[in-house]
Write the structure tokens for this entry.
Amino acid sequence: MEQLFEGVPARRFVYKKIPVAITAAGRYITHPPYVLDKNVKAVHAITLTADDESRVFNLTHRVEINGQELLPQEFEARVIYAYASVPVNDRYFDLGAEPAGNGVVKINCFDRSASGFAPYNVNFYLKCELV
């Protein structure tokens, strides 16, 4: 493995994209389980993008990896949403280093729109450290 400083190995990261189509308001949308590659050592961070920024304010979600709940069911999407005004290096929500080798990611989303709902898409991005 490449080294940045003498005796300190460099970490390699990949970014996994999990797209979720929000098709209805007032009901849970469950994304099929997403299996991480076996060479993923840990998930360090998560972020969210959407094709319609105004819809993010009505979205809550739950994220778990290997049965470990990282973000609880009513976690507001706007907390991890990557607004354009946020510097690129600050767009990820830190999760520590959640062990995830060959792990399963489960995502549930819920749109709380009262009226005027239109389908939209969100993308969850996981910052994954490789072995």
The chain is about 0% helix and 55% strand.
